[in-house]
Amino acid sequence: LGLPEPRTLDRIRRAWREDRKPANVLLVVDTSGSMADEDRLVRAKKGLEAFFEQVGKQDSVGLNIFSDRLQSLLPIAPLRGNERQMRETVNNLIADGGTAVYDATIDGFETVRREAGPERINAVVVLTDGEDTDSAASARDVVEAVRAQGDSDNQVRVFTIAYSAGALGAAQALADIAEASGGQAYEGDTEDIEAVYRSISSFF
Questions:
Q1: CA proximity to 31, closest of 111, 127, 123, 125
Q2: SS3 of residue 139 by DSSP
Q3: Alpha helices per DSSP H over 35-116
Q4: 141 DSSP 8-state letter
Q5: Crossing angle between the packed helical segments 171-181 and 101-115, to the nearest 10 degrees
Q6: What is the pTM of this model?
Q7: Tens digit of pLDDT for each residue in 58-116?
Q8: DSSP one-letter code for 120
Q9: Is 112 exposed, middle or buried (0-12, 13-18, 19+ CB in 10 A)?
Q10: Sheet strands side by side (includes 23-30)
Q11: pLDDT(25) > 50
Q12: What are phi and psi of 110, to 5 degrees?
């Protein structure tokens, strides 16, 4: 038997998303100064748009950004009601400052953890294009924090993206964090970041 046609596959995916548990997803995006290089932030925005197109309308999504400081831009809320605002906020992001990815990851994890429940898929998606320069926390602190939750019904999984060659030095630390949480680590660049975000969306 051959593979189903693309339209058939799309209907199957949509039906699955309608039947599975809704998700609480917090997007944590690096907006440090280096994200201006090679149009990284421009392309990351395209990746986020691809993510919004794939996530189910019954899901809830929030947005945090970080450079050398953390900012919560949009709280986790049903995408059906805040998609327009989410897209506008993403479109207006600018690159500036240092990189505090470990602090941002712990903060995002704790944010989702406070709202996590067994009736939902709970996740944090972290993208960074460089090694940490400004966090108070270490990579080991993040690993210990996410591992401490154990394998519970309301487990928060962390998906990490080491984005561009600048993040290669942080790739192993990001992979350790993802593994400790039961999530998954990705590596991407400006050419394939949309595919990376689409791949992550398939978990929700």
A1: 127
A2: helix
A3: 40-54, 79-91, 101-115
A4: H
A5: 10
A6: 0.90
A7: 899 999 999 999 999 999 999 989 999 999 999 999 999 999 999 999 999 999 999 89
A8: S
A9: buried
A10: 70-78, 60-66, 23-30, 121-128, 156-163, 185-188
A11: yes
A12: -65, -35
